[in-house]
Amino acid sequence: MKTNRLVFAAIAACLSLVSSTFAWQRGSSGCHKPLPEVLTPGGPSKNLTLDSKSQIGTIVTRRFLTYLPENYSKKNRDVAPLILAFHGQTQPTWSMENITALSTPYFNRDAIVVYPEGLNYKSPGQQWLGDPEAPPSSVVDDRIFVEELLDYLTSTFCVDESRIYATGLSNGGGLTNLLACTPALNRRIAAFAAVAAAFYTDASLTEPLFGAGCDPHLSYGRKIPIMEMHGLNDSIIAYDGDNTPAPNTIPLPEWVAAWVEKEGCGDREPKVDILDGGNVTKSSWSCGGWKDVFVHYRIDKFGHGWPSTVWQGEPFENLRLGPTMWNATSVILEWFGRWKLEPVRELK
């Protein structure tokens, strides 16, 4: 049954991301260096910091919660995938770690997971570029921070640079999209997955970011694997984009259509699967030999949050309208496992 693809996707996700499907790996300059003393493979996540130029005109300390999986080499010599997971507006990094469960062996035994922290530059708290309440990129540009972060992580850990991935929730999902729009970053990150993502209209912001400002510079058939999951009953980032009285976001069908066109798949009809007893509509586009290069999950009877089978507590349950019968983390990890750079395509 198609429903079982979601319900039992955890089984596939528990398989190593270091799959025999990928015979070629690219180890980073951090291989064989001593690990930071505070980190132990399979141990608790720890906060690390770096000096950043992301606050324009000054140097600011940026933090990121870091997890080494239990299968990670204690001698820092075996290459591992890397996942960046961006929190929602005002959400602590430990909370993002908790609701995604990306740091649990049940889902992930092999990938390094880093939870970057947005700057608490102004009210309402830590947040990312792309929200109307966040400072513009002329003041704080989190894309600079992500470039610096990738430089630090690849020079500190033994990262397979062909398998770096980005995911994010809400405001963090919006940033994930901005990374995909940025040529310098979409050439370093193999795939992007956003959940309940906030893609604000150009009119809602002081600068164009998600609309006219998104130019990924795709050419010569290059494509960017992108996934997005969104609840039809999202009361924070409405599926149709009407967040009245809050600023409007791009309607999801319009955002999807724009990216499908960017990918060069605009002349293709999506493959549509009805999953989870009719509650989930999965639309996937394949073109130019790239299978499922763009995937969108429309989730009925679901609000604003990260789909999972476990109780997440408040405010998450009130916002997302309760647990689901499937785990977004399983689906995302399985999909990430299909992609790597050079070339960024599913290997068959």
Automatic annotation (TrEMBL):
Question: Which protein, by its recorded name, is this?
Answer: feruloyl esterase
The residues forming the signal peptide are 1-23
Q: Tell me which UniProt keywords the record has, alphabetically.
A: Carbohydrate metabolism, Hydrolase, Polysaccharide degradation, Secreted, Signal, Xylan degradation
Principal place of residence: secreted
Family matches, as InterPro entries: AB_hydrolase_fold (IPR029058), FaeB/C/D (IPR043595)
The GO terms this record gives for MF are: feruloyl esterase activity
Please indicate if the UniProt record lists tRNA processing as a keyword: no
For this protein, the record's Gene3D superfamilies field holds: alpha/beta hydrolase (3.40.50.1820)
Q: Which SUPFAM superfamilies match?
A: alpha/beta-Hydrolases
